[in-house]
User: What shape does this take?
Amino acid sequence: MNIHNVTINKDIKIQMRDGVNLYTDIYFPSDANHKPIYDLPILLERTPYDKKALNLTQRYNHFCQNGYIVITQDCRGCYASEGELYFLTQEAEDGADTLDWIGKQNWFNGPVGTFGTSYQAWTQSAAATQNPKFLNAMIVNMGGSNAFTSTVRQSGAMELRFIAWAFWHSALNTNKDLKNIETDFALNNYSFENLLNNWPIKKGLTPLSLVPSYEKWAFDILTKTKYDEFWKHPGFAIDEYWNEHPDIPMIYVGGWYDSYTRATLENYDGLSKLKNSEVKVIIGPWTHGTTQPELTYSGDLEFGKEASIGSFSDFHLAWYNKWFKNNSESDYLYKNPIKLFVMGSGDGHKTKEGRIFHGGFWREEQEWPLKRSKFTKFFLDSNNNLSSTQSNNSNESITFAYDPSNPVPTIGANISSLAGLRPVDSKVRSPHEVPAAARRYNIVEPGGFNQKQEKRFYGTKEPYSNLSERLDVLTFQSELLSKDTEITGPIEATLYVSSDCVDTDFTVKLIDVYPSTKDFPDGFSLNLTDGIIRMRYRNSFTKEEFMKENEVYKVKIILYPTSNIFKKGHRIRVDVSSSNYPKFDFNPNTGEPIGLNKQQTVANNSVHFSEKYPSHITLPIV
Assistant: This one.
Protein backbone atom coordinates (compact mmCIF):
# COMPACT_ATOMS: atom_id res chain seq x y z
CA MET A 1 0.00 0.00 0.00
CA ASN A 2 1.20 3.48 -0.83
CA ILE A 3 2.06 5.65 2.13
CA HIS A 4 0.73 9.15 1.57
CA ASN A 5 1.95 12.46 2.77
CA VAL A 6 -0.44 14.35 5.03
CA THR A 7 -1.81 17.87 4.54
CA ILE A 8 -3.90 19.30 7.37
CA ASN A 9 -6.49 22.06 7.04
CA LYS A 10 -6.95 23.31 10.59
CA ASP A 11 -9.79 24.97 12.48
CA ILE A 12 -12.38 24.99 9.74
CA LYS A 13 -15.64 26.37 11.12
CA ILE A 14 -18.67 24.15 10.54
CA GLN A 15 -21.90 25.89 11.43
CA MET A 16 -24.59 23.90 13.21
CA ARG A 17 -28.33 24.43 12.71
CA ASP A 18 -28.44 26.87 15.64
CA GLY A 19 -25.55 28.97 14.34
CA VAL A 20 -22.85 27.60 16.67
CA ASN A 21 -19.52 26.92 14.95
CA LEU A 22 -17.66 23.71 15.66
CA TYR A 23 -13.97 23.80 14.82
CA THR A 24 -12.75 20.99 12.64
CA ASP A 25 -9.43 19.73 11.25
CA ILE A 26 -9.24 17.80 7.98
CA TYR A 27 -6.30 15.50 7.22
CA PHE A 28 -5.93 15.03 3.48
CA PRO A 29 -3.67 12.34 2.00
CA SER A 30 -1.41 14.16 -0.44
CA ASP A 31 1.07 13.39 -3.16
CA ALA A 32 4.81 14.04 -3.19
CA ASN A 33 4.14 17.74 -3.77
CA HIS A 34 1.66 17.83 -0.86
CA LYS A 35 -1.28 18.28 -3.22
CA PRO A 36 -4.38 16.86 -1.51
CA ILE A 37 -5.97 13.75 -2.95
CA TYR A 38 -9.77 14.00 -2.76
CA ASP A 39 -10.95 10.79 -4.38
CA LEU A 40 -10.68 8.77 -1.17
CA PRO A 41 -12.98 7.50 1.59
CA ILE A 42 -13.49 9.61 4.70
CA LEU A 43 -13.27 8.77 8.42
CA LEU A 44 -14.85 11.06 11.03
CA GLU A 45 -14.25 11.35 14.77
CA ARG A 46 -15.98 13.91 16.99
CA THR A 47 -14.27 14.35 20.36
CA PRO A 48 -14.60 16.25 23.64
CA TYR A 49 -10.92 15.54 24.38
CA ASP A 50 -9.12 18.05 22.11
CA LYS A 51 -8.67 17.21 18.44
CA LYS A 52 -5.03 18.29 18.71
CA ALA A 53 -4.18 15.78 21.47
CA LEU A 54 -1.16 13.66 20.57
CA ASN A 55 -2.86 10.31 21.18
CA LEU A 56 -5.55 11.32 18.69
CA THR A 57 -3.38 12.95 16.04
CA GLN A 58 -1.09 9.93 15.87
CA ARG A 59 -4.08 7.82 14.87
CA TYR A 60 -5.33 10.44 12.39
CA ASN A 61 -1.96 10.57 10.68
CA HIS A 62 -1.82 6.78 10.49
CA PHE A 63 -5.23 6.55 8.82
CA CYS A 64 -4.39 9.42 6.48
CA GLN A 65 -1.06 7.94 5.45
CA ASN A 66 -2.95 4.77 4.57
CA GLY A 67 -5.31 6.47 2.18
CA TYR A 68 -8.19 7.98 4.17
CA ILE A 69 -9.33 11.56 4.52
CA VAL A 70 -9.66 12.04 8.28
CA ILE A 71 -11.97 14.64 9.76
CA THR A 72 -11.79 15.45 13.47
CA GLN A 73 -13.96 17.90 15.34
CA ASP A 74 -14.04 19.36 18.85
CA CYS A 75 -17.51 18.78 20.29
CA ARG A 76 -19.67 21.75 21.21
CA GLY A 77 -18.24 23.69 24.14
CA CYS A 78 -14.99 21.72 24.08
CA TYR A 79 -11.56 23.18 23.36
CA ALA A 80 -11.71 25.21 20.11
CA SER A 81 -15.44 24.87 19.41
CA GLU A 82 -18.12 27.39 20.32
CA GLY A 83 -21.17 26.86 22.51
CA GLU A 84 -21.70 25.06 25.81
CA LEU A 85 -21.25 21.38 26.53
CA TYR A 86 -24.34 19.64 27.83
CA PHE A 87 -23.40 16.01 28.40
CA LEU A 88 -24.29 13.83 25.37
CA THR A 89 -27.55 15.52 24.41
CA GLN A 90 -26.01 17.82 21.79
CA GLU A 91 -24.29 15.04 19.89
CA ALA A 92 -27.16 13.70 17.78
CA GLU A 93 -27.94 16.95 15.94
CA ASP A 94 -24.33 18.17 15.86
CA GLY A 95 -23.14 14.85 14.46
CA ALA A 96 -25.86 14.80 11.82
CA ASP A 97 -25.13 18.41 10.82
CA THR A 98 -21.43 17.63 10.50
CA LEU A 99 -22.08 14.61 8.27
CA ASP A 100 -24.43 16.71 6.15
CA TRP A 101 -21.73 19.38 5.78
CA ILE A 102 -19.20 16.76 4.69
CA GLY A 103 -21.54 15.43 2.03
CA LYS A 104 -22.02 18.90 0.52
CA GLN A 105 -18.32 19.74 0.03
CA ASN A 106 -17.11 20.07 -3.56
CA TRP A 107 -14.26 17.67 -2.81
CA PHE A 108 -16.58 15.05 -1.33
CA ASN A 109 -16.62 11.69 -3.03
CA GLY A 110 -17.49 9.41 -0.08
CA PRO A 111 -18.03 6.97 1.44
CA VAL A 112 -17.93 8.12 5.12
CA GLY A 113 -17.21 6.03 8.19
CA THR A 114 -17.05 6.98 11.85
CA PHE A 115 -14.81 5.77 14.66
CA GLY A 116 -14.00 6.54 18.27
CA THR A 117 -13.95 5.25 21.82
CA SER A 118 -16.12 6.07 24.83
CA TYR A 119 -17.60 9.57 24.40
CA GLN A 120 -16.51 9.38 20.75
CA ALA A 121 -18.47 6.14 20.50
CA TRP A 122 -21.52 7.96 21.88
CA THR A 123 -21.08 10.73 19.30
CA GLN A 124 -21.20 8.15 16.50
CA SER A 125 -24.27 6.36 17.77
CA ALA A 126 -26.07 9.60 18.58
CA ALA A 127 -25.51 10.85 15.02
CA ALA A 128 -26.74 7.52 13.67
CA THR A 129 -30.09 8.00 15.45
CA GLN A 130 -30.77 10.80 12.94
CA ASN A 131 -30.43 8.42 9.96
CA PRO A 132 -27.83 10.63 8.25
CA LYS A 133 -27.59 10.33 4.48
CA PHE A 134 -23.79 10.45 4.36
CA LEU A 135 -22.94 7.73 6.89
CA ASN A 136 -21.81 4.44 5.36
CA ALA A 137 -20.12 2.37 8.11
CA MET A 138 -19.16 2.53 11.80
CA ILE A 139 -16.67 1.16 14.33
CA VAL A 140 -18.14 1.80 17.79
CA ASN A 141 -15.57 1.08 20.48
CA MET A 142 -16.93 0.83 24.02
CA GLY A 143 -19.95 3.10 23.82
CA GLY A 144 -23.46 3.34 25.21
CA SER A 145 -26.84 1.87 24.40
CA ASN A 146 -29.03 3.50 27.03
CA ALA A 147 -27.50 5.87 29.56
CA PHE A 148 -30.28 5.31 32.07
CA THR A 149 -30.35 1.52 32.21
CA SER A 150 -26.57 1.17 32.35
CA THR A 151 -23.35 3.17 32.00
CA VAL A 152 -24.57 6.51 33.45
CA ARG A 153 -27.30 5.33 35.78
CA GLN A 154 -27.96 1.67 36.54
CA SER A 155 -31.13 0.18 37.98
CA GLY A 156 -31.87 3.41 39.82
CA ALA A 157 -28.36 4.03 41.13
CA MET A 158 -25.88 6.60 39.83
CA GLU A 159 -22.52 5.60 38.37
CA LEU A 160 -20.39 8.24 40.05
CA ARG A 161 -17.77 8.12 37.30
CA PHE A 162 -19.70 10.72 35.34
CA ILE A 163 -19.83 13.13 38.24
CA ALA A 164 -16.06 12.67 38.38
CA TRP A 165 -15.97 13.23 34.60
CA ALA A 166 -17.69 16.60 35.05
CA PHE A 167 -14.92 17.70 37.42
CA TRP A 168 -11.86 16.53 35.55
CA HIS A 169 -13.19 17.34 32.09
CA SER A 170 -14.14 20.89 33.08
CA ALA A 171 -10.67 21.26 34.59
CA LEU A 172 -8.89 20.07 31.45
CA ASN A 173 -11.15 21.76 28.90
CA THR A 174 -9.31 24.83 27.55
CA ASN A 175 -12.36 26.35 25.83
CA LYS A 176 -11.74 30.09 25.98
CA ASP A 177 -15.30 30.97 27.05
CA LEU A 178 -15.57 28.41 29.84
CA LYS A 179 -13.51 29.89 32.68
CA ASN A 180 -10.97 32.44 33.79
CA ILE A 181 -7.51 31.61 35.13
CA GLU A 182 -8.60 31.62 38.79
CA THR A 183 -11.42 29.17 38.06
CA ASP A 184 -9.01 27.07 36.02
CA PHE A 185 -6.65 26.67 38.96
CA ALA A 186 -9.52 26.01 41.38
CA LEU A 187 -10.86 23.17 39.25
CA ASN A 188 -7.47 21.69 38.51
CA ASN A 189 -6.46 21.62 42.17
CA TYR A 190 -9.72 20.23 43.54
CA SER A 191 -9.64 16.72 45.02
CA PHE A 192 -12.59 14.65 43.85
CA GLU A 193 -11.66 12.11 46.50
CA ASN A 194 -12.53 14.76 49.07
CA LEU A 195 -15.99 14.99 47.57
CA LEU A 196 -16.36 11.20 47.68
CA ASN A 197 -15.37 11.31 51.35
CA ASN A 198 -18.17 13.80 51.99
CA TRP A 199 -20.88 12.63 49.60
CA PRO A 200 -23.45 13.79 48.56
CA ILE A 201 -22.33 16.76 46.51
CA LYS A 202 -23.87 20.10 47.51
CA LYS A 203 -24.95 22.41 44.74
CA GLY A 204 -23.03 25.68 44.64
CA LEU A 205 -20.43 24.56 47.17
CA THR A 206 -17.73 22.96 45.01
CA PRO A 207 -15.54 24.45 42.24
CA LEU A 208 -17.92 22.87 39.72
CA SER A 209 -20.28 25.76 40.51
CA LEU A 210 -17.70 28.05 38.87
CA VAL A 211 -18.61 26.45 35.53
CA PRO A 212 -22.43 26.57 35.77
CA SER A 213 -23.08 24.71 32.53
CA TYR A 214 -21.21 21.66 33.87
CA GLU A 215 -22.82 21.84 37.30
CA LYS A 216 -26.26 21.96 35.70
CA TRP A 217 -25.93 18.78 33.66
CA ALA A 218 -24.08 16.99 36.47
CA PHE A 219 -26.96 17.65 38.86
CA ASP A 220 -29.47 16.75 36.16
CA ILE A 221 -28.05 13.27 35.56
CA LEU A 222 -27.67 12.79 39.33
CA THR A 223 -31.14 13.90 40.39
CA LYS A 224 -33.37 13.05 37.40
CA THR A 225 -33.92 9.50 38.55
CA LYS A 226 -37.02 8.43 36.61
CA TYR A 227 -36.94 7.17 33.04
CA ASP A 228 -38.74 9.97 31.23
CA GLU A 229 -38.34 12.21 28.19
CA PHE A 230 -35.10 13.62 29.56
CA TRP A 231 -33.46 10.19 29.37
CA LYS A 232 -35.16 9.27 26.09
CA HIS A 233 -33.21 11.93 24.22
CA PRO A 234 -31.33 10.36 21.26
CA GLY A 235 -28.04 11.39 22.84
CA PHE A 236 -28.81 9.19 25.84
CA ALA A 237 -31.16 6.46 24.61
CA ILE A 238 -29.52 4.98 21.55
CA ASP A 239 -31.66 1.85 21.83
CA GLU A 240 -34.87 3.87 21.48
CA TYR A 241 -33.70 4.82 17.97
CA TRP A 242 -32.26 1.59 16.57
CA ASN A 243 -34.91 1.64 13.84
CA GLU A 244 -33.64 5.05 12.72
CA HIS A 245 -30.04 3.85 12.37
CA PRO A 246 -28.99 3.60 8.72
CA ASP A 247 -28.67 0.03 7.43
CA ILE A 248 -24.87 0.02 7.12
CA PRO A 249 -21.97 -2.21 8.21
CA MET A 250 -21.30 -1.76 11.93
CA ILE A 251 -18.86 -3.40 14.31
CA TYR A 252 -19.08 -3.04 18.10
CA VAL A 253 -15.96 -3.49 20.22
CA GLY A 254 -16.03 -4.11 23.96
CA GLY A 255 -14.29 -5.73 26.91
CA TRP A 256 -15.42 -7.97 29.74
CA TYR A 257 -14.08 -5.38 32.21
CA ASP A 258 -15.21 -2.36 30.19
CA SER A 259 -17.76 0.05 31.61
CA TYR A 260 -19.92 -0.49 28.50
CA THR A 261 -19.97 -4.32 28.27
CA ARG A 262 -23.72 -4.61 28.61
CA ALA A 263 -24.35 -1.72 26.22
CA THR A 264 -21.98 -3.12 23.57
CA LEU A 265 -23.84 -6.43 23.45
CA GLU A 266 -27.24 -4.72 23.61
CA ASN A 267 -26.34 -2.62 20.56
CA TYR A 268 -25.09 -5.65 18.67
CA ASP A 269 -28.10 -7.78 19.57
CA GLY A 270 -30.67 -5.10 18.80
CA LEU A 271 -29.19 -3.83 15.55
CA SER A 272 -28.21 -7.22 14.14
CA LYS A 273 -31.87 -8.25 14.32
CA LEU A 274 -33.07 -5.09 12.58
CA LYS A 275 -30.52 -4.54 9.81
CA ASN A 276 -29.61 -6.46 6.67
CA SER A 277 -26.05 -5.12 6.52
CA GLU A 278 -23.26 -6.84 8.38
CA VAL A 279 -23.32 -6.14 12.12
CA LYS A 280 -20.56 -7.68 14.23
CA VAL A 281 -19.21 -7.61 17.76
CA ILE A 282 -15.87 -8.46 19.35
CA ILE A 283 -15.42 -8.67 23.13
CA GLY A 284 -11.97 -9.10 24.62
CA PRO A 285 -10.87 -9.39 28.27
CA TRP A 286 -10.09 -5.69 28.30
CA THR A 287 -10.84 -2.67 30.41
CA HIS A 288 -11.96 0.64 28.89
CA GLY A 289 -10.01 2.66 26.36
CA THR A 290 -8.57 3.00 22.86
CA THR A 291 -5.29 1.25 23.57
CA GLN A 292 -6.70 -1.36 25.96
CA PRO A 293 -7.54 -3.86 23.16
CA GLU A 294 -3.81 -3.99 22.48
CA LEU A 295 -3.06 -5.12 26.07
CA THR A 296 -2.92 -8.60 27.55
CA TYR A 297 -4.02 -7.77 31.10
CA SER A 298 -6.88 -6.20 33.03
CA GLY A 299 -6.20 -5.09 36.58
CA ASP A 300 -4.30 -7.89 38.32
CA LEU A 301 -5.19 -10.47 35.66
CA GLU A 302 -2.90 -11.63 32.87
CA PHE A 303 -4.50 -13.38 29.88
CA GLY A 304 -1.53 -14.13 27.62
CA LYS A 305 -0.34 -12.64 24.35
CA GLU A 306 -3.37 -13.99 22.45
CA ALA A 307 -5.58 -11.55 24.34
CA SER A 308 -4.15 -8.56 22.45
CA ILE A 309 -5.97 -7.50 19.31
CA GLY A 310 -2.64 -6.33 17.86
CA SER A 311 -2.67 -2.81 16.43
CA PHE A 312 -6.09 -1.35 17.09
CA SER A 313 -5.46 1.28 14.42
CA ASP A 314 -4.77 -1.46 11.88
CA PHE A 315 -7.91 -3.24 13.06
CA HIS A 316 -9.80 -0.10 12.01
CA LEU A 317 -8.05 -0.05 8.64
CA ALA A 318 -8.94 -3.69 8.03
CA TRP A 319 -12.62 -3.00 8.67
CA TYR A 320 -12.76 0.05 6.45
CA ASN A 321 -10.56 -1.44 3.74
CA LYS A 322 -13.12 -4.23 3.49
CA TRP A 323 -16.09 -1.93 3.01
CA PHE A 324 -14.56 1.12 1.35
CA LYS A 325 -11.69 -0.38 -0.66
CA ASN A 326 -13.01 -3.87 -1.40
CA ASN A 327 -10.03 -5.46 0.34
CA SER A 328 -10.90 -8.29 2.74
CA GLU A 329 -7.39 -9.67 3.08
CA SER A 330 -6.57 -9.18 6.75
CA ASP A 331 -5.98 -11.34 9.80
CA TYR A 332 -7.95 -8.76 11.81
CA LEU A 333 -11.20 -9.78 10.14
CA TYR A 334 -13.20 -12.76 11.32
CA LYS A 335 -15.91 -14.82 9.65
CA ASN A 336 -18.73 -15.15 12.16
CA PRO A 337 -20.81 -12.29 13.60
CA ILE A 338 -19.39 -12.67 17.13
CA LYS A 339 -15.87 -13.07 18.45
CA LEU A 340 -15.44 -13.55 22.19
CA PHE A 341 -12.50 -14.06 24.50
CA VAL A 342 -13.31 -16.83 26.97
CA MET A 343 -11.39 -16.04 30.15
CA GLY A 344 -10.08 -18.45 32.74
CA SER A 345 -8.15 -21.28 31.07
CA GLY A 346 -4.84 -20.27 32.70
CA ASP A 347 -2.97 -22.12 35.45
CA GLY A 348 -3.08 -19.28 38.00
CA HIS A 349 0.67 -18.79 38.39
CA LYS A 350 2.07 -15.40 39.38
CA THR A 351 3.67 -13.54 36.49
CA LYS A 352 6.84 -11.49 36.82
CA GLU A 353 4.61 -8.39 36.98
CA GLY A 354 2.81 -9.87 39.98
CA ARG A 355 -0.45 -10.66 38.19
CA ILE A 356 -2.30 -13.95 38.31
CA PHE A 357 -2.27 -15.82 35.00
CA HIS A 358 -5.98 -16.23 34.36
CA GLY A 359 -5.52 -17.05 30.66
CA GLY A 360 -8.17 -17.59 28.04
CA PHE A 361 -8.79 -18.04 24.31
CA TRP A 362 -10.75 -16.56 21.41
CA ARG A 363 -13.86 -18.22 19.99
CA GLU A 364 -16.30 -17.20 17.27
CA GLU A 365 -20.05 -17.54 17.70
CA GLN A 366 -23.20 -17.14 15.64
CA GLU A 367 -25.69 -15.66 18.09
CA TRP A 368 -26.09 -13.88 21.41
CA PRO A 369 -27.00 -15.27 23.87
CA LEU A 370 -25.47 -18.57 22.81
CA LYS A 371 -28.18 -21.08 21.87
CA ARG A 372 -26.29 -23.87 23.60
CA SER A 373 -26.14 -22.01 26.91
CA LYS A 374 -28.05 -23.76 29.65
CA PHE A 375 -29.38 -21.11 32.00
CA THR A 376 -28.94 -22.74 35.39
CA LYS A 377 -30.17 -21.53 38.76
CA PHE A 378 -27.75 -21.61 41.67
CA PHE A 379 -29.58 -21.15 44.95
CA LEU A 380 -28.37 -19.24 48.01
CA ASP A 381 -29.05 -20.64 51.47
CA SER A 382 -28.72 -19.56 55.08
CA ASN A 383 -25.57 -21.66 55.53
CA ASN A 384 -23.80 -19.51 52.92
CA ASN A 385 -23.92 -22.26 50.33
CA LEU A 386 -24.45 -21.86 46.60
CA SER A 387 -25.83 -24.92 44.82
CA SER A 388 -28.13 -26.04 42.03
CA THR A 389 -30.41 -27.67 44.61
CA GLN A 390 -33.23 -25.55 45.96
CA SER A 391 -33.78 -25.49 49.70
CA ASN A 392 -37.05 -26.95 50.97
CA ASN A 393 -36.63 -25.34 54.40
CA SER A 394 -39.17 -23.03 55.89
CA ASN A 395 -38.40 -19.36 55.62
CA GLU A 396 -34.83 -18.61 56.63
CA SER A 397 -32.98 -15.37 56.24
CA ILE A 398 -29.76 -13.52 56.99
CA THR A 399 -29.90 -9.93 58.18
CA PHE A 400 -27.06 -7.45 57.99
CA ALA A 401 -26.68 -3.81 58.94
CA TYR A 402 -25.91 -1.54 56.01
CA ASP A 403 -24.39 1.75 57.14
CA PRO A 404 -24.11 4.42 54.41
CA SER A 405 -21.24 6.02 56.32
CA ASN A 406 -19.21 2.82 55.88
CA PRO A 407 -20.02 1.47 52.41
CA VAL A 408 -18.39 -1.58 50.87
CA PRO A 409 -15.43 -0.30 48.80
CA THR A 410 -15.21 -1.02 45.10
CA ILE A 411 -12.26 -3.32 44.39
CA GLY A 412 -12.06 -3.77 40.64
CA ALA A 413 -15.05 -3.42 38.37
CA ASN A 414 -16.45 -2.63 34.94
CA ILE A 415 -15.58 1.02 35.31
CA SER A 416 -13.86 3.96 33.67
CA SER A 417 -13.42 7.71 34.15
CA LEU A 418 -13.74 7.60 37.94
CA ALA A 419 -10.57 9.61 38.08
CA GLY A 420 -8.97 12.53 39.84
CA LEU A 421 -6.32 15.09 38.99
CA ARG A 422 -3.04 15.59 40.80
CA PRO A 423 -2.69 19.26 41.80
CA VAL A 424 -0.50 21.66 39.90
CA ASP A 425 2.02 24.06 41.34
CA SER A 426 0.56 27.54 41.69
CA LYS A 427 3.82 28.94 40.35
CA VAL A 428 3.08 27.73 36.80
CA ARG A 429 1.34 30.22 34.52
CA SER A 430 -1.36 27.77 33.53
CA PRO A 431 -2.50 24.37 34.83
CA HIS A 432 -2.23 23.12 31.26
CA GLU A 433 1.53 23.41 31.19
CA VAL A 434 1.52 19.95 32.79
CA PRO A 435 0.19 17.26 30.40
CA ALA A 436 -3.19 15.87 31.40
CA ALA A 437 -1.95 12.31 31.08
CA ALA A 438 0.66 13.01 33.77
CA ARG A 439 -1.95 14.34 36.18
CA ARG A 440 -5.05 12.19 35.78
CA TYR A 441 -5.19 9.01 37.86
CA ASN A 442 -7.80 6.36 38.54
CA ILE A 443 -9.53 6.60 41.90
CA VAL A 444 -11.03 3.17 41.21
CA GLU A 445 -8.95 0.80 39.12
CA PRO A 446 -10.85 -1.17 36.46
CA GLY A 447 -10.45 -4.88 35.92
CA GLY A 448 -10.14 -8.02 37.99
CA PHE A 449 -8.61 -8.05 41.48
CA ASN A 450 -8.47 -10.24 44.54
CA GLN A 451 -11.39 -9.11 46.72
CA LYS A 452 -9.15 -8.18 49.60
CA GLN A 453 -8.70 -4.69 50.95
CA GLU A 454 -5.35 -3.04 50.29
CA LYS A 455 -4.05 0.47 50.80
CA ARG A 456 -4.06 1.07 47.03
CA PHE A 457 -7.87 0.75 46.82
CA TYR A 458 -10.05 3.76 47.61
CA GLY A 459 -12.17 3.40 50.74
CA THR A 460 -10.36 0.42 52.24
CA LYS A 461 -9.29 0.43 55.88
CA GLU A 462 -6.83 -1.31 58.14
CA PRO A 463 -6.40 -4.15 58.94
CA TYR A 464 -7.19 -4.64 55.21
CA SER A 465 -9.28 -7.77 55.55
CA ASN A 466 -11.08 -9.70 52.81
CA LEU A 467 -14.32 -8.07 51.74
CA SER A 468 -16.06 -11.34 52.61
CA GLU A 469 -15.11 -10.77 56.27
CA ARG A 470 -17.23 -7.63 56.48
CA LEU A 471 -20.47 -8.16 58.38
CA ASP A 472 -22.40 -6.35 55.65
CA VAL A 473 -21.22 -8.72 52.90
CA LEU A 474 -23.09 -12.02 52.60
CA THR A 475 -21.01 -14.66 50.87
CA PHE A 476 -22.35 -17.81 49.19
CA GLN A 477 -19.96 -20.41 47.78
CA SER A 478 -20.29 -23.59 45.78
CA GLU A 479 -18.49 -26.79 46.64
CA LEU A 480 -15.14 -27.31 44.95
CA LEU A 481 -15.89 -27.83 41.27
CA SER A 482 -15.28 -31.37 40.03
CA LYS A 483 -14.81 -30.21 36.42
CA ASP A 484 -14.16 -27.07 34.43
CA THR A 485 -17.37 -25.03 34.17
CA GLU A 486 -17.81 -22.30 31.55
CA ILE A 487 -20.31 -19.47 31.81
CA THR A 488 -20.81 -17.23 28.79
CA GLY A 489 -23.73 -14.87 28.48
CA PRO A 490 -26.06 -12.54 30.38
CA ILE A 491 -26.38 -13.01 34.14
CA GLU A 492 -29.27 -12.22 36.45
CA ALA A 493 -29.83 -12.64 40.17
CA THR A 494 -33.25 -13.04 41.77
CA LEU A 495 -33.37 -12.15 45.44
CA TYR A 496 -36.13 -12.11 48.02
CA VAL A 497 -35.33 -9.25 50.35
CA SER A 498 -36.71 -7.08 53.10
CA SER A 499 -35.62 -4.04 55.09
CA ASP A 500 -36.63 -1.87 58.01
CA CYS A 501 -36.17 1.22 55.81
CA VAL A 502 -38.37 2.66 53.07
CA ASP A 503 -35.59 2.49 50.49
CA THR A 504 -32.22 0.79 50.23
CA ASP A 505 -30.00 -0.95 47.68
CA PHE A 506 -28.98 -4.54 47.08
CA THR A 507 -25.84 -5.48 45.19
CA VAL A 508 -24.64 -8.78 43.74
CA LYS A 509 -21.12 -9.71 42.68
CA LEU A 510 -20.01 -12.90 40.89
CA ILE A 511 -16.57 -14.20 41.92
CA ASP A 512 -14.21 -16.94 40.71
CA VAL A 513 -12.48 -18.35 43.81
CA TYR A 514 -9.01 -19.77 43.23
CA PRO A 515 -7.69 -22.32 45.74
CA SER A 516 -4.56 -21.80 47.79
CA THR A 517 -1.34 -22.15 45.80
CA LYS A 518 2.34 -21.56 46.36
CA ASP A 519 2.11 -18.23 44.52
CA PHE A 520 -1.15 -17.24 46.21
CA PRO A 521 -1.26 -19.04 49.58
CA ASP A 522 -4.49 -17.25 50.59
CA GLY A 523 -6.13 -18.07 47.28
CA PHE A 524 -7.46 -15.39 44.94
CA SER A 525 -11.10 -14.27 44.86
CA LEU A 526 -11.55 -12.73 41.43
CA ASN A 527 -14.41 -10.35 40.67
CA LEU A 528 -16.04 -11.09 37.32
CA THR A 529 -19.15 -8.91 37.20
CA ASP A 530 -21.65 -7.16 39.45
CA GLY A 531 -25.01 -5.39 39.54
CA ILE A 532 -27.28 -3.29 41.75
CA ILE A 533 -30.94 -2.48 42.33
CA ARG A 534 -32.35 0.60 44.07
CA MET A 535 -35.42 -0.69 45.81
CA ARG A 536 -37.71 2.26 45.12
CA TYR A 537 -37.35 1.33 41.41
CA ARG A 538 -37.68 -2.44 41.82
CA ASN A 539 -40.90 -2.60 39.76
CA SER A 540 -40.60 0.35 37.43
CA PHE A 541 -38.11 2.99 36.39
CA THR A 542 -40.90 5.47 35.77
CA LYS A 543 -42.28 5.71 39.30
CA GLU A 544 -41.07 5.23 42.85
CA GLU A 545 -42.51 2.56 45.12
CA PHE A 546 -41.19 2.66 48.66
CA MET A 547 -40.87 -0.40 50.86
CA LYS A 548 -42.96 -1.41 53.82
CA GLU A 549 -41.02 -2.40 56.90
CA ASN A 550 -39.95 -6.07 56.83
CA GLU A 551 -42.20 -6.99 53.91
CA VAL A 552 -40.50 -9.45 51.55
CA TYR A 553 -40.00 -8.32 47.96
CA LYS A 554 -38.78 -10.20 44.90
CA VAL A 555 -36.16 -8.27 42.95
CA LYS A 556 -34.14 -8.97 39.83
CA ILE A 557 -30.60 -7.66 39.57
CA ILE A 558 -28.94 -7.56 36.16
CA LEU A 559 -25.18 -8.15 36.22
CA TYR A 560 -23.00 -7.32 33.23
CA PRO A 561 -22.47 -10.28 30.89
CA THR A 562 -19.20 -12.16 31.01
CA SER A 563 -17.38 -15.25 29.73
CA ASN A 564 -15.26 -17.28 32.13
CA ILE A 565 -14.15 -20.82 32.87
CA PHE A 566 -14.35 -21.74 36.55
CA LYS A 567 -11.66 -24.41 36.60
CA LYS A 568 -11.79 -27.71 38.41
CA GLY A 569 -10.91 -27.11 42.07
CA HIS A 570 -12.27 -23.52 42.01
CA ARG A 571 -15.49 -22.34 43.60
CA ILE A 572 -18.29 -20.16 42.26
CA ARG A 573 -19.07 -17.39 44.73
CA VAL A 574 -21.79 -14.78 45.00
CA ASP A 575 -21.48 -11.79 47.32
CA VAL A 576 -24.61 -9.88 48.32
CA SER A 577 -24.52 -6.50 50.03
CA SER A 578 -26.12 -3.07 49.83
CA SER A 579 -23.29 -0.87 48.55
CA ASN A 580 -20.44 -0.84 46.07
CA TYR A 581 -18.85 2.56 46.54
CA PRO A 582 -17.75 4.67 44.78
CA LYS A 583 -18.73 2.78 41.63
CA PHE A 584 -22.30 3.57 42.62
CA ASP A 585 -23.63 6.31 44.88
CA PHE A 586 -24.64 4.89 48.25
CA ASN A 587 -28.27 4.84 49.30
CA PRO A 588 -28.93 6.91 52.45
CA ASN A 589 -31.93 4.64 53.21
CA THR A 590 -34.16 7.61 54.01
CA GLY A 591 -36.32 7.81 50.89
CA GLU A 592 -35.30 11.42 50.26
CA PRO A 593 -34.79 12.62 46.67
CA ILE A 594 -31.73 10.88 45.29
CA GLY A 595 -28.61 13.04 45.31
CA LEU A 596 -30.26 15.64 47.53
CA ASN A 597 -30.53 13.81 50.84
CA LYS A 598 -29.81 15.68 54.04
CA GLN A 599 -29.88 12.63 56.30
CA GLN A 600 -28.81 9.00 56.30
CA THR A 601 -29.60 6.04 58.50
CA VAL A 602 -28.52 2.45 59.03
CA ALA A 603 -30.72 -0.14 57.29
CA ASN A 604 -31.20 -3.66 58.60
CA ASN A 605 -31.50 -5.57 55.35
CA SER A 606 -32.40 -9.23 54.96
CA VAL A 607 -32.06 -11.83 52.22
CA HIS A 608 -34.53 -14.74 52.41
CA PHE A 609 -34.04 -18.37 51.42
CA SER A 610 -36.71 -21.09 51.27
CA GLU A 611 -39.01 -22.96 48.95
CA LYS A 612 -41.25 -19.88 49.06
CA TYR A 613 -38.37 -17.42 48.70
CA PRO A 614 -35.82 -19.15 46.42
CA SER A 615 -33.08 -16.51 46.14
CA HIS A 616 -30.75 -17.52 43.31
CA ILE A 617 -28.43 -16.43 40.53
CA THR A 618 -28.96 -17.66 36.98
CA LEU A 619 -25.74 -18.53 35.15
CA PRO A 620 -25.39 -19.35 31.42
CA ILE A 621 -23.55 -22.68 31.53
CA VAL A 622 -21.89 -23.68 28.25
